[in-house]
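Priority: medium. Attachment 1 of 2:
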């Protein structure tokens, strides 16, 4: 009989690529991961890994087993949701991940609503970039999370992760010292989020669609800080609706025909879990009506 815990290690190796990364993600030592994968190979009776020096790759049999593992883990998630429904109601810890502007602008109201409806549910929030959400969900560090994508930077599907349709959509604004079209800032210095984030990729794509590449001066992962830098003439920025609630004097906002869309993410099979459903309902009440209809 194949052990589910070892199958999970193989699944993470397929996603993360190295034993060291699996160990870090799941709080194991690298030697423990290697030992458990060796035991899994003996259980399977066929080679699952190919070792070349320090690198490890999955064999065709290993890749097929990962595909079955995804289905097994989804079924277990569904079973857990059904058992949770059999209890009296949502209770216990609910680990929520969200990006910074949602934490500030939406989650306080959503958590207050959640507490009033389900006082036995203990919500715990972690600020996390959407790029790190899939790994945190698979590792069990989060139960549900808010992720976003942009019109020109759609989200990539992740094995083992399910997404709802867009919960809300925010317009994007060009923030500058004076109002004007995007194309007028091809020679301006730009303020963006750090490389590797969806927000940074969005600025690159939007500027490229206008016929130029942005000359990035500052890399700051906080929209309030970006706006503060715009206000003192340090450059221009693209900021979504939730990021402009504290716009300082001297900054002009030009609305663009582009949106940032937020979805709820959770482990595949977990949509019916009462705690996840309760959070989704509470979040809906916290989203302003003009964003829900965007």
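Attachment 2 of 2:
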């Amino acid at each position: 009989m194949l052990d589910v815990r070892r199958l999970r290690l193989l699944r993470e190796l397929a996603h993360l690529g190295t034993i060291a990364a699996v160990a870090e993600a799941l709080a194991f030592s690298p030697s423990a991961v290697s030992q458990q994968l060796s035991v899994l190979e003996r259980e399977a009776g066929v080679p699952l890994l190919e070792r070349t020096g320090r690198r490890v790759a999955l064999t065709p049999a290993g890749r097929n087993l990962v595909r079955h593992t995804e289905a097994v883990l989804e079924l277990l998630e569904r079973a857990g949701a059904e058992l949770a429904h059999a209890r009296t109601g949502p209770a216990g810890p609910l680990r929520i991940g969200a990006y910074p502007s949602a934490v500030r602008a939406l989650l306080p109201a959503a958590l207050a609503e959640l507490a009033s409806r389900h006082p036995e549910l203990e919500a715990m929030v972690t600020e996390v970039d959407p790029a790190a959400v899939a790994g945190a969900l698979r590792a069990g560090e989060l139960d549900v999370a808010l992720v976003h994508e942009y019109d020109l930077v759609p989200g990539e599907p992740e094995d083992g992760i399910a997404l709802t349709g867009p919960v809300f959509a925010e317009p994007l604004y060009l923030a500058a010292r004076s109002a004007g079209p995007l194309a007028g800032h091809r020679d301006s210095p730009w303020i963006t989020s750090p490389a590797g984030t969806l927000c940074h990729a969005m600025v690159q794509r939007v500027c490229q669609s206008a016929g130029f590449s942005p000359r990035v001066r500052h890399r700051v992962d906080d929209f309030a800080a970006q706006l503060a830098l715009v206000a003192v003439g340090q450059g221009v920025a693209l900021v979504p609706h939730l990021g402009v609630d504290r716009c300082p004097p001297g900054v002009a906002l030009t609305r663009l025909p582009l949106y940032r869309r937020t979805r709820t993410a959770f482990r595949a099979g977990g949509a019916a879990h009462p705690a996840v459903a309760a959070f989704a309902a509470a979040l809906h009440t916290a989203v302003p009506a003009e964003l829900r209809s965007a």
